[in-house]
Amino acid sequence: MKLLVRTIVALLCAVSVEVTLASPQARATRLGVSPTLDGEVLTDHAWSQLTPITAFTQQRPGEGMPASKRTEVYVGFMDDALFVGVVCYDETPSLITVTNQNRDASLNDTDSFRMVIDAFQSGQHGLIFGTNPTGLEYDGQVSNETGSRFGNGGFDLNWDTTWQAEAAIGAHGWSAEMRIPFSSLRYPAGDIQQWGFNFERTIRRSNEVTHWAPLPRQYAMNRVSLAGAITGIEVPPQRNFIVTPYALSRQARGGNATRDKDTEFGLDAKYSITPSLTLDATINTDFAQVEVDSQQVNLNRFSLFFPEKRPFFQENSSQFRVGASGVELFFSRRIGIGPGGVPLPIAGGLRLSGKAGPSTNVGLLAMRSKAVPGIAPENDFAVVRLRQELSGRSAVGMLFVGRDGGGSDNQTWAVDGRWGVGEKVTLAGLVAKTSTPGITDDDHAYNLHAAYDTKTWSFNTTLTEVGNGFNPEVGFLSRKNFRRLDVFGLRSIRAAESSAILEYKPHASYTGYWDFDGFYETGRWHFDSSIEWKNGGELHTAVNLNHEGVKAPFEISSGVFVAADSYDETELSVFASTDRSAAIRTGFGLNAGGFFGGERLGLSPYVAYRPNEAFEASVSWNYNDIRLPGGDFDVGLTNVRISYSFSSRMSFAALLQHNDRDQVLATNLRFSWLQDANTGLHIVYNETDDDINAPGRPRREFIIKYSHQLSVY
């Protein structure tokens, strides 16, 4: 604790007086006629009366320098929608890089345009819309901004709404047009408004990133507090009611059941109580179209984390996110997913999320999962999240999570806060407690965090404590009964303008775990020398000093045990990757050194081929060769991914996974024909032979699901 206090004091003392540049401003214009959405901005008369935004500043490679190529952004509106036109001038359009056209595909490896909209000018939340020269639709939601090297705050890429984008490549370069209905946005009351905006253009072949509102190099677009402003936006009153019914047919055979066939119907609904507060309802929810989990191999004695992939829970998920690494107080995968990843039917649920005022964020969730005999009883779940925004990137909040079912209940309470001290320092903390029948002691947890971030230096430190009785049954704990200390420091060194290297980033970190008896359970010193090239290639070379204190023997692999002892090991770690925008890109990871009194060799190569924006294939292999005093074993996980985009809305994807230790082969094939907000037709085939109750009998599943969005009013 003393170390943490001294570190916080040092960070506060390091805050210096900064010169804050005035944020740029522009004005939106009412359009006389609606633009023809074909991407041809220069020849569309609708844009001719608007004054474009043109002043863009480099963030990379030449921070603070004017953009090397001209960009024009036009912002207009009509009664029902916001329109944005962009012209990205390029004297050699044949060199424009385009790598993908799928909805929500990464825009980091392609020429692209993105914008963030903070309609409440909160400086902490916003919506991101983006596109590239194929006209793909990229949308996401920013919450609790950080936008720094330490992460992007809460960013939900799976937030989807109804809007349109079209783009075209021509002799001038490329251009795009966006139409975003006001019904797809959230904004405060008032007829004429000023919104926070920032625009970003990426020129991939030179790795140039430019912004309208300049961003220091340690920040990303999610740094909403540094956005500019656009005035004169005339908005309509908003009352929206959208329903999305679905129908699903499923056939399965093999595995533990010889044959299974069923048809399901369900419904999602979205109602705008106010322009900033939305009620979502779901009945008989099904997630058949979601990609299966990636297989993992557990090489320690602690729980593995599998990310949430189901759209209903991903949308607005950052509103409910409270916790730290390895300590998530609400983890939505506890709803509708049982032991071993078995899906549990969801009867339905309600979610109320958004703003109940200019600076009060509300998140309410109620769900019910159905009983599955022999696996899980019927359960009711409730989540309440309130967060009050304060000035200076600060906020305070509370969280309640409850589960009731099967004759038992469990609750989690927490209060948390974040304080921005100038632009460089962020302090954060939380205190939590759980209530579980039969547990009365040590049912607490807390987390304290301090970060200092500038262009050249970054530091952070975190202290976490989780009691042995702390039991968030609708959360995630990688372990319990510990005190944990994290310390991190990084130096950023920009290379000369003539160099092919963009940045050197040497850094060091330490993580240590102790139990409440003072037993040193886990420790890791990490010393890394990182290099990033201007084309996006990377090289990381590191030395790790690892400590593991094992109190009781555990089985790390079938028949192979790690003895109770104290282990101090040294490990070499290397990772390298090539230009991610190239047609062929590769990467290679190596971990070699001591491991629980023996040796470990870990290899993780991958190669990807992307000749155009339509097709991509990749192969990755994660291999570990373990030699221990208690026995030897090796395991390899192979992943093969193939995708083909017939258009920006129609695609096919295949994922094949093989675990050679357990001889498990899993196949996931998905065809999607999307309409508005990621609805549409999904055809899915799954096959896996990992059913331990029916070895040698692969389970095969074929699913057809169709959903359609209907606007009631």
Report the count of strand segments. Answer: 47
**Main sheet specs:** 28 strands, antiparallel
SS class: mainly beta
Percent of residues in beta strands: over 45%
Terminal Cα span: 56 Å
Please characterize this protein's 3D structure.
This protein is mainly β. It is 2% helix and 54% strand. The protein has two helices and 47 strands. It has a 28-stranded antiparallel beta sheet that branches. Strands 1, 3, 6, 7, 8, 9, 12, 13 and 14 form a nine-stranded mixed beta sheet that branches. The longest helix has 13 residues, at 2-14. Residues 7-20 have low confidence and may be disordered.
Structure keywords:
mainly beta, nine-stranded mixed sheet, 28-stranded antiparallel sheet, Immunoglobulin-like, globular, 713 residues, 2 helices
Q: Quick gist of this model?
A:
With 713 residues, the chain is mainly beta. The N and C termini lie far apart (56 Å).
Topology readout:
Elements: H1 2-14, E1 25-27, E2 29-30, E3 57-60, E4 71-77, E5 81-89, E6 112-118, E7 126-131, E8 138-143, E9 154-156, E10 164-170, E11 173-181, E12 192-203, E13 208-211, E14 228-234, E15 241-253, E16 259-274, E17 277-285, H2 311-314, E18 323-324, E19 327-328, E20 346-355, E21 360-369, E22 379-390, E23 394-405, E24 408-421, E25 425-435, E26 444-453, E27 457-466, E28 476-477, E29 482-491, E30 493-494, E31 501-504, E32 507-514, E33 520-533, E34 538-550, E35 554-557, E36 560-562, E37 565-577, E38 584-595, E39 598-603, E40 606-609, E41 615-628, E42 631-645, E43 650-659, E44 664-674, E45 680-688, E46 699-707, E47 710-711
Parallel strand pairs: 1-14, 2-4
Antiparallel strand pairs: 3-13, 4-5, 5-11, 6-7, 6-12, 7-8, 8-9, 10-11, 12-13, 12-14, 15-16, 15-46, 15-47, 16-17, 17-20, 18-19, 19-28, 20-21, 21-22, 22-23, 23-24, 24-25, 25-26, 26-27, 27-29, 29-32, 30-31, 31-33, 32-33, 33-34, 34-37, 35-36, 37-38, 38-39, 38-40, 39-41, 40-41, 41-42, 42-43, 43-44, ...
